[in-house]
Every structure is written in structure tokens, then in C-alpha cells.
Amino acid sequence: GLTDDDYDMYYEKWQRLDPSGSQFIRYDQLSNFVDGLEPPLRIPKPNHLLLVAMDLPICENDRMHCVDILDGLTKHFLGTLDSSPTTTESDAPIDIKKDRPKDYHPITTTLQRQRENHLSRIGLKGFQYNVQL
What we know:
Elements: H1 4-17, E1 24-26, H2 30-36, H3 48-53, E2 57-59, E3 63-65, H4 66-78, E4 106-109, H5 110-132
Antiparallel strand pairs: 1-3, 2-4
């Protein structure tokens, strides 16, 4: 299982990215952050699809909260990550707001963001095809 040393390592690495103690990092830092962790919490690159499947909350201004990421990594390690498409909105991690700062306002998740990006690319390809006709 996970030990106190594992959690200490996580927060030590976190402090390097968040020296001001805001409890947030940018979404674009997530992949490098989890790749830089030590086992058992580390998810080596390429890790994008696994991070998407974790369905982690993304807050306003593309920020991610330290506890949400740690929760996802813990579930992944323990094998309790539910990546089935049958989860409902009430089951989503975006509803968890206890122990969060006042400026914690999730607006999407890693899975929703990937879907949005994918649909945008499809729409752009269709638009480009129609313009070329």
C-alpha cells in the first residue's frame, strides 16, 4: 500500500511547482508532474491517456488542485480507478469540494476536455473539407 513517505514525497514534489502554496498547478504541468514523481505514485510518460481516463477536475483558468490529483493517483495505484463510461454526474469527482480553497471552482474534467478537443478537431476538419470544395 501507500505509506506516509509516499504522501510526503508527493507534497515535496508539489511544492517545487507551487512554491506560493496556492494548492493549484496548471493543467499543462500535469503530465510532467506525475512523470517526475517516484514510485508507486509515478505514472511515466506517455501518460496523457491515463490522465484523461482519471477524469480529474479542472478548475477555472486551467488549474488543477493538489488533492484531486493525489486522489486520482491513489485510486490508480490501488486499482480502484473507475474508467467505465457508466459513471453519472453525481459520481464524478468534480462534486468533491470538501477541504478545498475558496477559489476551487471545477468547470470541466480531463475526460471532458479530451472529448471537447477531439470534437473540435473533427469540426475543424469538416470545415476545412467544405471550404476546399
